[in-house]
Amino acid sequence: MLNFVKRAGLSLWARKGRTLITLSTFLVISVMVLAGVLVNGATARAEQDARRSVGAEVNMEMDLGRMGAGGGGMQAPQIDASTVDRLGRLPQVQKYTYSTWDRVIFTKGGKPVGDGASNPMGPGGTAGVGVLDTGLLADFRSGRFTLLSGRHLTAADKAARLVLIEERLARKNGLKAGSKLTLTGNEQKNSGEFTVAGIFRDPRPSSEPEPEYGVNPADMVYLTVGGLASIGSDPKSSLRVGKATFLLDDATHLDAFKDEAKRLAGSALDGFKLDANDKALQQMTSPLKSIRSTATLAMWLIALAGAAVLALLANLAVKQRRKEYGVLLAMGEPKGKLIAQQVLETVVVAAAALVLSTLFAQGLTQSAGQALLGKEAADARQKLDSWQPPAPGSTGIDQGADWNDKPVENADPIDTLTVRLDPADIAAVGGVGLGTALLATALPAASVLRLSPRTILTKGK
């Protein structure tokens, strides 16, 4: 009597039509499940890359949601620079910077590009931003601003009188790195001579006012925090700042940093929020999440439908082979070996389908995934481009607009996907395929246990 392994091989060869139908069903299941696994893996890698590009960045900014609470009015909060320095020395922080701002007036060596009746800072005035380290400003780190000559302001320059200016301002006044520029503070009580440390390029046109300060972008100047304080109303007072940025050494340390910062700063953080820049990450990865959910849903629907078809095929196979099983049982073949033969036939076909699916699933998934992601990204980008800010001086609530919905600059939705087939993916699909094969043959195979060789051979049942 042939052993059940050899019988399984002969059975598959003799029943070519049923074998091909089973192989095709398993092939569809394998391709769809493998596609779902590949899409999940590709989107996970893309999200990780996006997280790295955004960086483990925490911004300490004014909490607009809590402004005015307790009758405090709408005065912008400030925090002592020494407190921010202590937060910057926490072990989770790799680098940090902070800034403050005030109106400054050109008094010698320069005139603003946008000076005139429309200048919101008055004649000769502009917005002066005091920064600890200009190289850590988001616009410079993203590449939106470009340093053309000279160098950035750093923490080592904190007490020096240095300034970073835009190229149009430099061109109008014939300034270059090393040139001198005299600036006067907002109350026009104190002035100081500043050295141009560097010249940068801001791509925004002069006709487009800087959204935060309303001045011509060409007139924005960045000063050392100590230099700006030296021309303020009270140069001897302790330095206080309105915002800060912390770059962490690892994104996983975010919660630990927030907990330590709140413990260390205490009530000094009242009026501020620690924003982990999640908005930029969400904006970039929203198309990925959409195609991931679609691929996962399709994967499980196909797998369940395929399992149902396979179960039907296995049940029909048992009915068609009752006489064969009756003869074998009458010859003394254990029922367990009949079940093992049926399971083995299904597993062999499933393994063949898995091997075939690996030959073209990667290319098919790359094409389909890229097409789907491209559409989702285009829709997301169109939605971002259609956002319109509320009218000046308006919260936008009555107009259906919200400042919180403003798109994050330099955080375009991800529109490319790289599919990679790894051994772990094949193993995962193999596990799903094996489970599907066992599930599909479990109930039909169990019916073999109820077979009676006497009944089958005498009555055909």
Task: State the gist of this model.
The protein has 461 residues and is α+β, with helices and mostly antiparallel strands. The chain has helices at 4-14, 16-54, 81-88, 138-141, 167-173, 225-230, 254-265, 278-320, 322-330, 335-385, 423-446, 453-459; strands at residues 57-62, 79-80, 93-108, 125-131, 146-150, 162-166, 180-184, 191-201, 221-224, 240-241, 243-248, 272-275.
- The SSE order reads HHEEHEEHEEHEEEHEEHEHHHHH
Question: How confident is the prediction overall: mean pLDDT?
Answer: 80
- Helical residues, percent: 40-55%
Strand ordering within the main sheet: 3-4-9-6-8-7
Structural class: alpha+beta
Please provide the count of β strands. 12
| Poorly predicted regions | 68-73
- Describe the sheet with the most strands: 6 strands, mixed, barrel
Rounded to the nearest angstrom, the distance between the terminal CA atoms is 24 Å
Number of helices: 12
Query: Quick one: overall form?
Result: elongated
Kindly report the oligomeric state of this protein.
single chain
Rg measurement, Å:
35 Å
Strand content: 15-25%
Task: Provide the descriptors you would attach to this structure in a database record.
461 residues; six-stranded mixed β-barrel; 16% strand
Question: In words, what does this structure look like?
Answer:
The structure is a single chain. The chain is α+β, with helices and mostly antiparallel strands. Helices cover 48% and strands 16% of the residues. It has helices at 4-14, 16-54, 81-88, 138-141, 167-173, 225-230, 254-265, 278-320, 322-330, 335-385, 423-446, 453-459, and strands at residues 57-62, 79-80, 93-108, 125-131, 146-150, 162-166, 180-184, 191-201, 221-224, 240-241, 243-248, 272-275. A six-stranded mixed beta barrel has the order 3-4-9-6-8-7.
